[in-house]
Design a protein that fits this description.
Layout: H1 2-17, H2 21-34, H3 49-63, H4 74-91, H5 96-119, H6 123-151, H7 168-187, H8 192-211, H9 215-230, H10 235-252, H11 255-262, H12 271-289, H13 302-308, H14 321-355, H15 362-381, H16 391-413, E1 419-422, E2 426-429, H17 434-442
Antiparallel strand pairs: 1-2
Helix pairs in contact: 1-2, 1-3, 2-3, 2-5, 2-6, 4-5, 4-14, 5-16, 6-7, 6-8, 6-16, 7-8, 7-9, 7-15, 8-10, 9-15, 12-14, 14-15, 14-16, 15-16
Length: about 450
């Protein structure tokens, strides 16, 4: 039944996508993050639905008149350069066959990220994309939180099989990243029952993160919560809620969970932690010989560990977005990767600074804030996971770029909306009359 339902939704949506590329981006995001076809066990389980939707979206992009040029943003330029450099490293890769196999997957994702930035350039589409991403990944958090409650936290939460986030640590990082999106949706949902539902979802997602038994998620989640409180409105109420719910969730977990978390302090006695460190040293040692190009996609292989790893028999994947980029694409790739996210962070900070006092654009201020909170989870949790090519952080950056582009375009066509120059701060929007600002403050 699930297979039939998913097939009907996807195949029935293709004709609509053919004239609406933005709808294709939403479908592709739903299929990519939730993988609904993999929730069944029949004919649809291995159907290439995402490839179908991606192909139709690409056709629609070229025949539709809706698409716009890529936004002018430093992060976009850095992403283009990063993609070009990964193409260079693929040419010089140590294992061409498996390298090009992963490169093909990565470039399909990157193509959809660029399409997202060209066709989702409106407030309504940005918010729709946020809903789709949040609910697609949040589904596993809601399900995982309920599972943790029912099992008393005795079993770990896992992600959808055959995806970037199938493992316990991977799904927990994804949930850590989308939790702030639920906060944004909660702030800007008018229906009180929807808000209550989003609050309940946030609680279950938080429990699922804890129930993943991931030490990296524990650290990333702690960092995310601090930034969530710092960048949120209503700090007192949110802080009290976190201080109440987190101890309750921890009290619920069994002793085996605390035993697992205690190994953070004794990492040198833990085989898994030492395996990660061995992989990091492998990447560092390899780039001494190949500082510019690294060894290409999918190069963390036993043959090279015998040469470059401190413990040549302890083979592991990269287990870090930073060492993954360093080992596979050299220092040039790592620098471009970091530059991309640094410029994206600056875009988010600029949005917050410019729109801080603009009630009409409050949604953009809050969304940029929560995107930054989610990225903090990625930066911290990604230090322990090889998810450098996971689409979610790139979608987050795309949303920041889209908000920035939308504000620039609308204020350029309507000069009455902005614009007071303030030394050292750039443009500060002052669109609300003093009386209305006072009324809003009282609210």
């Amino acid at each position: 039944m699930r297979d039939i339902l998913v097939s009907l939704i996807v195949l029935g949506g293709l004709p609509f996508i053919l004239s609406r590329p933005w709808l294709g981006v939403l479908f592709w995001s739903w299929l990519g993050y939730m993988n609904p076809h993999r929730l069944g066990w029949g004919f649809a389980h291995n159907m290439p639905f995402a490839a179908m939707v991606g192909a139709v979206t690409l056709i629609s992009f070229f025949v539709s008149k809706e698409s716009r040029p890529l936004p002018k943003n430093g992060a976009v330029v850095a992403l283009i350069l990063l993609n070009l450099w990964m193409l260079v490293t693929s040419i010089f890769s140590f294992f061409p066959e498996i390298s090009w196999a992963l490169a093909s997957k990565v470039y399909k994702i990157q193509l959809m990220i660029f399409l997202t930035m060209m066709v989702m350039q409106s407030k309504e589409r940005i918010i729709l994309l946020t809903w789709v991403i949040a609910l697609s990944i949040g589904f596993f958090g809601i399900k995982g939180g309920a599972f943790t409650l029912l099992t008393g936290g005795s079993s770990m939460v896992l992600g959808p099989t055959g995806t970037f986030i199938s493992g316990n640590t991977e799904i927990s990082l994804a949930l850590t990243m989308v939790l702030p999106l639920f906060r944004f949706l909660h702030l800007h949902s008018e229906n009180k029952w929807v808000r209550y539902g989003l609050l309940g979802a946030m609680a279950l997602i938080g429990l699922a993160i804890i129930g993943s038994y991931s030490r990296g998620a524990f650290v990333a989640g702690a960092a995310m919560l601090v930034f969530l409180w710092w960048k949120s409105r209503g700090k007192l109420a949110l802080g009290l809620l976190v201080l109440l719910l987190v101890p309750l969730a921890l009290f619920f977990m069994p002793e085996q969970w605390f035993n697992k978390m205690d190994t953070i302090q004794t990492y040198d006695e833990d085989a898994s932690a030492m395996g990660r460190i061995n992989a990091w040293w492998f990447a560092f040692n390899l780039t001494k010989d190949y500082p510019f190009t690294g060894c290409g996609f999918n190069c963390f292989e036993p043959e090279l560990f015998l040469i470059y790893a401190p413990n040549p028999t302890d083979y592991h994947s990269s287990h870090s977005i930073y060492f993954q980029m360093l080992g596979q694409h050299g220092y040039v790739g790592l620098i471009l990767f970091l530059l991309f996210f640094w410029l994206a962070w600056r875009t988010g900070s600029r949005i917050r600074r410019v729109l801080k006092n603009n009630i009409e654009w409050r949604w953009a201020f809050d969304l940029a804030s929560m995107i930054q909170v989610g990225l903090i989870g990625y930066f911290v949790g990604g230090a322990f996971l090889g998810l450098a090519y996971f689409d979610l952080p790139y979608h987050f950056v795309a949303i920041l770029v889209l908000i920035d582009q939308l504000y620039k375009r609308e204020t350029a066509t309507n000069p009455k909306k902005a614009v007071e120059q303030s030394p050292g701060l750039g443009t500060l929007a002052q669109t609300v009359a003093p009386g209305k600002r006072q009324w809003y403050a009282k609210k």
